[in-house]
Design goal:
Largest sheet: 5 strands, antiparallel
Number of domains: 1
Order of helices and strands: EEHEEEEEH
Number of helices: 2
CATH architecture: Roll
Radius of gyration: 18 Å
Shape: globular
CATH topology: Thiol Ester Dehydrase, Chain A
Number of strands: 7
Distance between the termini: 30 Å
Strand content: 25-35%
Structural class: alpha+beta
Length: about 170
């Protein structure tokens, strides 16, 4: 793993709240699909951008998307809706992090309507140095019971991801 003199390694754990990020946009017709709803790919891009900001904050420097572990769409998002994303680090390893993103939508003209949970996603980011090699990230310090649950679930997703890769690699070598 490369060390980057321009990105000093932080040895103390960073809390889940340290790097938490929220972004928002008003969906326009340029994001619409043939049904008149916001295209899922645009929602994915916003979620990835939010996760990237969290990864940068937690790692103290550049980080890249290594995988999108899962994205679930729960409700359609309409042109004109206010789309908000909320993201935080769920788990941190040596150089990688899982970032969880919640996406909500609310009609722009009606503040009385409660925001709808419209999508959730889990991204894996790897912190990189100036040469594009992986670098260490600070440990994660959970703060709430919800953070502990998120970390446990992230560890399950990671174990499944690694087991799936090992099984595929084994099948290809036979």
């Amino acid at each position: 793993m490369g060390e980057d003199a321009t990105v000093p390694f932080v040895t103390e754990a960073r809390t889940t709240s340290y790097s938490r990020v929220s972004l928002g946009i008003i969906a326009s017709s340029t994001e619409s699909n043939l049904l008149g709803n916001v295209h899922g790919g645009d929602i994915m891009k916003l979620a990835d951008s939010t996760a990237g900001a969290v990864a940068y904050r937690h790692s103290g420097g550049p980080a890249v998307t290594a995988a999108m572990d899962e994205m679930t769409f729960l409700e359609p998002v309409h042109v004109g809706d206010i789309i908000k994303t909320y993201a935080q680090v769920n788990w941190a390893g040596t150089s990688s992090m899982e970032i969880g993103v919640r996406v909500e939508a609310q009609p722009w003209g009606d503040a009385a309507d409660a925001p709808l949970h419209v999508a959730s996603a889990y991204f894996v980011f790897v912190a990189i140095d100036e040469d594009g090699r992986s670098r260490r990230v600070p440990p994660l310090q959970t703060e709430t019971e919800s953070d502990v649950r998120r970390q446990r679930e992230a560890e399950i997703r990671r174990a499944h991801r690694l087991a799936r890769k090992a099984e595929i690699d084994q099948g290809r070598s036979e």
